Amino acid sequence: MDVLLIGSTSNLMQKMVDKLDKEKCRIFLLTEEGKEIPSYRRVFETYRFDYNNVCIREIFNSVKPDVTIFFGAYDWNFKWDNVQNTSVSYSSAILNMLMAFAAQQKGKFIYLSSDEVFDGISVNKALEIVNQTEQNPKAQAIAMGEKMCLDYSRMVKGDIIVLRIDHLYGIPTRWEEVQNVCAQMCMEAIDTGEVTIDGDKSIYVEEAEPAVETINHERFTVDMEKQFSPVYVPDAVEYIYQVVAAQSCRQSVYQVSGSKPVSQTEIAELIQQKFKNRSGESSVAIADQTQKGKNSVVLSGFTFMEEFRLRSFNPPEKAVPKLVDYLQKNASRFSKRSDVEESLAGRMKRGFLEVVKALVPFVENMILFIPFFMLNNRTTDSAYFKNLDFYLLYILLFAIVYGQQQAIFSCLLAIAGYCFRQMYQRSGFDVMLDYNTYVWMAQLLILGLVVGYMRDQLRSIREEHAGEIQFLLKQLADLSDINGSNVRVKDVLSDHLLNQNDSMGKIYEITSKLGSYQPVEVLFYAADVLSQIMRSKDVAIYSVANRSYARLFSATSAKARSLGNSVNYTEMTEMYEAISQHRVYINKNMAQEYPLMASAIYEGDELQMILMVWDIPWERMTLGQADMLAITGYLIQDAVLRANRYMAALEQQRYIEGTHILEPEAFEELVSAFMRARSRNLTTCALLNLDTAQLSRQEVNERLGRLVRQTDYLGQDSKGNLHVLLANTDVAGAGFVQQRFQDAGMGCQVEEALAV
Fold first, then answer.
1. DSSP letter at 341?
2. Phi/psi of residue 28, each to 5°?
3. Global confidence as pTM
4. Tens-digit pLDDT profile for residues 618-660
5. Which domains, ranges and CATH numbers included, belong to the chain?
């Protein structure tokens, strides 16, 4: 199974990767984090792109994931300091992923939401559920993500599931993971020596529904003691994986909560116990600072637990002490906020530096004006340089370097310098009335503005081209990364196909050996083939006799025969329910009376064989092994059905006419096959020699038809002697059959083999 994880590094991500790797899934990771953040060792390929990048669709097309998990509310790539901007990017990221998911038209999309979607709910004095006027923008964004997923699911008919996790907490790996009730109470105890209990009432959300749009009073109940139902990260991972592994889900939205709600007081007492000294006194006090109107939400996870038959393995009594121990050892990492507000002095310093940076061109302009002013004054009376306008050169210099803004400022300084120089010989009034003054000013302004405008336009064009080139280079790098990833995937899959023990090539190589056996031997050696592929020494194959019973045909060990020679498979409810739906049965409860795995072979809609595997280590009881058993069953089915069709085609030639007695050639071939299988411990059998000298073959057929089982064989050897081959019967069991024959007036003796 190929799984695409979308999110940032965190404890939840690490546990999810470990779980999927244990289940033999191929894991791909999409994150916005840079290459300075190392990737997980068990991740097959890591893609580092912005969630709004157009390459997201290319990634989906390249990976073609069977399951996509977007961590949503627990993706710390989204920085909620600037909530409004982050909300927009969050919504657009979800939309981009849903479009890419819908384009591939396969797989399952899982969106992880949280209890925060109900952040805007409150209780008035009459204990009535109301909406707060100010809702948390982050909660609105997460709720909008739920609604987008569900709307998209209805629109494209896709398999999109929303998992709303209640108060997720666990061992943190980054500061954002401490922002939950349990971790905050632990850090408060470590930093201040006091645990504060606040809040007024608990609001219970009875069932899972889409994101909050309107308040349905029937869904909520109110409790006077503030409680919550936290989910520990390892438990959350198990819950998520059950949805990943499920072939279908009944609902689109599930609420995932702990085993039972707990109060803040109970959590505080657990924390307080961890700080007790040898004398039994705790260094942490509990302070009750209940705030009226402050409420908590408790999500009911009954629907989810009922459908997937799960339970919590880490209740707060077990998990909170672990959390306290870890935070005590790493208090320096989490005790102070990393997003503290900037001080007044810091803001003033930053503002001053920005002002200085903006004033630098103006200061430079005024400084350079001085030498140009002096040069203009010195060359006014010169016979060689009097026609050279230094002010014009000055304005062109700043128009070319800085653009139109500084060109205007240079013009103003040049005009001021020109007027000041003219006032050496004339009054200011005469200068202002001189027509040449305005012509000269217009000349400078026009030239400065035009050159400055052209410079700004050229700069804008260069920046636009540079941005386009940068975008194309980034696209090229993205395509190169995707192509390199595809090449690595191809190489790994080729190597896997050729060399791995559980590869399709190896499986086909082993199962193809069945074609070299005689048709009557196929089922015996099918058990041996199945044992090799599943790496289990305890394998059994049962042949279905009717709609209720199956007879043991071959087995590789005594343990594989523990159910007996005949089994009523319809009474094995859990196994029968799975194989009747053409699924592989996995013994998740480790019931001793059931095999660890079982599958079935069908011909059309008719159940023909049941494959049972008993000896499998717990770590290999995964969906990967289940898929391998199913594939092996299909390959065995092909050989078995081909052999059955061959035997059916020769049926008239195999039996003595008018009887169920096998001809010598067919019977000797069958006995040889059973004896070879018995020598390899694949089956048990017994051969009886019948004394029927006084009876015709028709009389023998009529008498023995009532005495032998459907799985036993009656045949004649080349010397004309009649024999009965008892399948799955040892010498001790043959004694009972021998006595039954003698009571019917027919003598018989046990033989080791046919006399040639």
1. P
2. -120, 145
3. 0.50
4. 767 777 788 888 877 777 777 776 666 665 555 556 777 767 7
5. 2-334 (3.40.50.720), 344-470 (no CATH), 505-649 (3.30.450.40), 652-751 (3.30.70.270)
